[in-house]
Design brief:
- The complex is a heterodimer of chains A (about 190) and B (about 190).
- Chain A is mainly α.
- Chain A contains 7 helices and no strands.
- Chain A has a domain of about 110 residues.
- The two termini of chain A are about 30 Å apart.
- Chain B has about 190 residues and is an all-alpha fold.
- In chain B, helix 1 crosses helix 4 and helix 6 runs antiparallel to helix 7.
- Chain B is globular, with a radius of gyration of 19 Å.
- Classes of the chains: A mainly alpha (about 190), B mainly alpha (about 190).
- At the A-B interface, helix 1, helix 3, helix 4, helix 5 and helix 6 of A face helix 1, helix 2, helix 3, helix 4 and helix 5 of B.
Chain lengths: ~190, ~190
C-alpha cells in the first residue's frame, strides 16, 4: 500500500474541501456520492488503494445512517483518525444544513401560494411513483433471491408496519436478532457463508 | 424539553436506518409524523420532495427542516447532531475493527436479514404517502372521495419511471406541473 505522505494539516484541509464540494453538488443519494468519493480519493489523490476503498464503502453501506455521512466518516477516519472523521462529517453536513435552513424559512410563505401548493400536491403523487418504483426494484431483487426466509421476512415486516402499525424500530431490532441467531447457527454448523 | 426530544428522536432515526437512501423514511415518519406530530403527512411528503431536489441525505434534510420548524436554528443543529451521532460512533468502531482485523462476516450476515425488512418498511411508508395523496389526511377511503387526478398522475409517473426510464426529479416536477394545470383548468380550490 503506497500512499503519498503529506503534512496532516494539509490532508485535513483537502479532506474538508473535497467532502464539502462533493456534498454540495451531488444529487441522487448516497450511492452516487460514494462513487464520487472513490474517484476523488482513490483515482485522483491516490490516498487510499482500490481494494481497501471497496471495503470502506461496504462498511459505509452496512452501518446505520445516511450512506453519504458514513462514507465521509470511513474515508476521514482512514486518512486522519478521529479528527479526520470529524472534519469529514462536518463538511458533509454543512451544505444540506444551509440549503434546507433557507428552504424552511421560505417554505411557510410559499406553501400558502395557490400555484405552489397545487404543484406540491401533484408532486406528492410523483414522489409516490418514485418510491413505488424503487420498492418494485428492491422487492424484485429479494424475490429473485428465492430465499424463503427473506421472502417471509419481507411479507411479515410489511404486514406488521402497514396493517398493525408496528414501529419500524421494533421490526429492525427483531431482524437484527434473527440475523445474529442465523450467523451463530451457521457458524456452529460449520457452514461457510 | 424540546431540544432533548428532538435529539432523542433523531438519534433513533440515525441509529436504525439501515441501507441508505429511502431506508430512513419509515423511521422519520414514525418519529416525526405519528409519534410527535411535528409535521403533518403532507408536510412530510413535501419534505421528501424538497430532499429529492436538493443535495444531501433525506435524514439530514429532515433533521434540519424539522429542527428549524420546531425550535429554530438551535433546534436544527441539535436534530442534525442527533442524526449523525450514531453513525459517527458505529462507523468509526467498525472501521477501526476492520482496519485491524479485515473481516466483516457477522455484519454481512445480519445485513442479509435486514435487507428484506428494509424493503418492506419503505413500501409501508410509500403506501401511507399514496393514501394521503389520493384521499387526503383524515378523509375516509371511499370511491367518491378519491382525487382521481392524483391517481392518474401517479400511474403516469410510475409508467414513465418503469418503462421510459425517466429521471425521478423530472417525473416529480412534471407531476407538479400536471396537477397545477389540472387545478387551473377545473378551478379546484386550494386545500
Amino acid at each position: 500500500m503506497e500512499q503519498k505522505k503529506e503534512p496532516r494539516r494539509r490532508v485535513l484541509l483537502k479532506l474538508f474541501l473535497s467532502t464539502l464540494y462533493l456534498s454540495a453538488f451531488t444529487f441522487g443519494g448516497g450511492y452516487v456520492i460514494v462513487t464520487l468519493m472513490k474517484k476523488k480519493f482513490v483515482d485522483t489523490l491516490r490516498w487510499i488503494d482500490e481494494d481497501e476503498m471497496l471495503d470502506l464503502v461496504a462498511i459505509a453501506q452496512s452501518a446505520p445512517g445516511a450512506i453519504a455521512v458514513n462514507g465521509a466518516i470511513v474515508v476521514g477516519f482512514k486518512l486522519a483518525g478521529l479528527l479526520g472523521a470529524g472534519v469529514a462529517v462536518i463538511a458533509t453536513v454543512i451544505p444540506p444544513f444551509i440549503i434546507i435552513s433557507l428552504v424552511s424559512v421560505f417554505y411557510a410563505v410559499f406553501r400558502e401560494n395557490y400555484f405552489v401548493s397545487m404543484a406540491l400536491e401533484g408532486m406528492q403523487a410523483g414522489v409516490g411513483a418514485v418510491i413505488a418504483s424503487v420498492v418494485y426494484d428492491m422487492a424484485a431483487g429479494v424475490f429473485r433471491g428465492r430465499s424463503p426466509f427473506s421472502i417471509v421476512i419481507l411479507l411479515a415486516s410489511f404486514a406488521a408496519t402497514c396493517f398493525f402499525g408496528v414501529n419500524a424500530v421494533i421490526v429492525i431490532l427483531v431482524c437484527i436478532a434473527l440475523g445474529l441467531v442465523q450467523a451463530l447457527w451457521e457458524k456452529r454448523k460449520g457452514v461457510q457463508p | 424539553m424540546i431540544y432533548l426530544q428532538l435529539l432523542l428522536s433523531f438519534l433513533q432515526i440515525g441509529l436504525f436506518s439501515f441501507g441508505g437512501g429511502y431506508a430512513a423514511l419509515p423511521l422519520i415518519q414514525d418519529q416525526i409524523v405519528s409519534l410527535h406530530g411535528w409535521l403533518s403527512m403532507e408536510e412530510f411528503t413535501d419534505l421528501i420532495t424538497i430532499s429529492q431536489m436538493t443535495p444531501g441525505p433525506i435524514a439530514i434534510n429532515a433533521a434540519t427542516f424539522v429542527g428549524q420548524k420546531i425550535a429554530g436554528a438551535p433546534g436544527a443543529i441539535v436534530a442534525t447532531l442527533g442524526c449523525v451521532l450514531p453513525s459517527c460512533v458505529i462507523v468509526t468502531l467498525i472501521a477501526g475493527l476492520y482496519l485491524k482485523y479485515r473481516t466483516m462476516r457477522v455484519l454481512q450476515s445480519v445485513l442479509g436479514t435486514l435487507r428484506p425488512a428494509v424493503v418492506a418498511l419503505i413500501a409501508s411508508a410509500g403506501v401511507s404517502i399514496l393514501l394521503t395523496a389520493f384521499w387526503g389526511t383524515d378523509a375516509l377511503i371511499s370511491l367518491a372521495g378519491t382525487d382521481w387526478s392524483m391517481v392518474v398522475i401517479f400511474a403516469a409517473g410510475f409508467a414513465l419511471l418503469r418503462w421510459a426510464k425517466w429521471n425521478p426529479i423530472l417525473v416529480m416536477v412534471l407531476a407538479g406541473v400536471a396537477k397545477l394545470a389540472f387545478a387551473l383548468i377545473t378551478g379546484e380550490p386550494a386545500s
